[in-house]
Write a structure and sequence with these properties.
The chain is α/β, with parallel strands linked by helices. About 30% of the residues lie in helices and about 25% in strands. The strands form 3 sheets. It has a 5-stranded mixed beta barrel with strand order 8-11-9-10-12. The chain has a two-stranded antiparallel sheet with strand order 2-3. Strands 7-13 form a two-stranded antiparallel ribbon. A hairpin with a 2-residue loop joins β2 and β3. The longest helix has 15 residues. The chain binds 1-O-phosphono-alpha-D-glucopyranose. 1-O-phosphono-alpha-D-glucopyranose (G1P) binds next to β11.
Length: about 270
């Protein structure tokens, strides 16, 4: 039912300079796999096979990554190292990739609106690749697709954060529904509120399922926090009419946009495979 996943990937990754001077931050590896490939594999686990990527200048490595490298294939053919290409080859075979460029950096809402040309008029998922999610059984996005099937409206993934960290996230408030302890009908959402103004400590992480009416709403949304067009502000319009669900997911999430989170993710995956 959800066939497409949008990856906003135009940001500069300034927190990782100088590594991100000529390399997209989405290509930074956790062990041997770039962050964006983890995201694509998570989307695949949710039954999605059309990847739509919003890129920008200096991001060509992403397109090359999701393409065949004939030179490498020829070099490694019959070699013991051929095995190392197996995973990415499978991704390329099973999925399609389409790209568009965000010309100016005007915020996450604007990046998502830029992706409209790739999405069209259907519900879609959004993955922010620097939030790396892991769950043993069902990927975080796969869990969200199940929630979408039931409620047929926008879904955001949330987790509890320390109160002093609310100014790093979109923060929601809402009512638990259906006797669940993890599904909220959202009543309020605020982008990066100071702790004293935060409606709760339930923070949005980089996973969304959006209905296509969001595009018109974003195009009407005024710049908000940081002078940027915020997806949180656009979603608030749908929350007002009860059309946003927040889902407290099962699994772990690493903030790989920060050095601490990146190291934590590296250690976590290293322990799992070694
Ligand atoms: C974006 C969103 C924010 C969300 C966060 C999750 O912020 O604007 O609402 O909580 O992603 O990672 P960014 O981290 O891009 O500043």
């Amino acid at each position: 039912m959800i066939k497409k996943c949008l990856f906003p990937a135009a940001g500069y990754g300034t927190r990782f300079l100088p590594a991100t001077k000529a390399t997209p931050k989405e290509m930074l590896p956790i062990l041997t796999k770039p962050l964006i490939q983890y995201g694509v594999e998570e989307a695949m686990e949710a039954g999605i096979d059309q990847m739509a990527i919003v890129t920008g200048r200096g991001k060509r490595a992403i397109e090359d990554h999701f393409d065949i490298s004939y030179e490498l294939e020829t070099q490694l053919k019959g070699n013991s190292k051929e095995e190392l290409l197996k995973e990415i080859r499978e991704v390329i075979t099973k999925c399609t990739f389409s790209y568009t460029r965000q010309i100016e950096m005007k915020g996450l809402g604007h990046a998502i609106l830029t992706g409209q040309t790739l999405i069209g008029n259907e519900p879609f998922a959004v993955i922010l690749a620097d939030d790396l999610c892991y769950n043993e059984n069902s990927s975080v996005l796969a869990q969200m697709v199940e929630v979408y099937k039931k409620y047929q409206c926008c879904v955001v993934a949330i987790e509890e954060v320390a109160k002093e960290d609310t100014n790093k996230y979109g923060v929601i408030d809402g009512k638990l529904i259906d006797d669940s302890d993890n599904i909220y009908r959202v009543s309020t959402m605020v982008e990066k509120p100071e702790p004293k103004d935060a409606p709760s400590n339930l923070a949005i992480i980089g996973r969304y399922i959006l209905t296509p009416d969001i595009f018109d709403i974003i195009s009407q949304t005024k710049p908000g926090r940081g002078g940027e067009i915020q997806i949180t502000d656009a979603l608030m319009e749908l929350a007002k009419v009860g059309k946003v669900i927040a889902y407290k997911f099962e699994g772990k999430r690493f903030d790989c946009g920060s050095v601490d989170g990146f190291v934590e993710a590296t250690n976590f995956f290293y322990k799992k495979v070694c």
